[in-house]
Amino acid sequence: MGVLSGLEPQAVFGFFESLCAIPRGSHHTGAVSVYLETFARQRGLRCRRDELNNVIVWKDAAPGYEDAPVVMLQGHMDMLIEKERECPRNTDQEGLDIFVEGDEIGAHGTTLGADDGIGVAMMLAVLDDDRVLHGPLECVFTADEEVGMQGVRGLNVSDLKAKFMINLDSLEERVFTVSCAGSTRVVSTLPMGRVPFEGTVCALMVDGFIGGHSGEDIHRGRANANRLMGRALMEIMAKTDLRLLTVSGGAKDNTIPRDAAALIAVKDLDAAKAAAAELAEALENEYRATEKKIRVRLFPTRSSFTPMDEDSTRRAATFLFCAPNGVQMMSAEVPGLVQTSLNFAQVYTEDDKMVCRFMVRSSVNSQAAEIAHRVMALTRAMGGEAHIPSAYSAWQYRPDSRLREVMTDAFRTVYGAEPRIAALHASLECGILSGKMPDLDCISFGPDVVNVHTPRERLKIASTWRTWALLRETLRRLK
Ligand SMILES: [Zn+2]
Question: What average pLDDT does range 339-351 have in this prediction?
Answer without folding.
Answer: 96
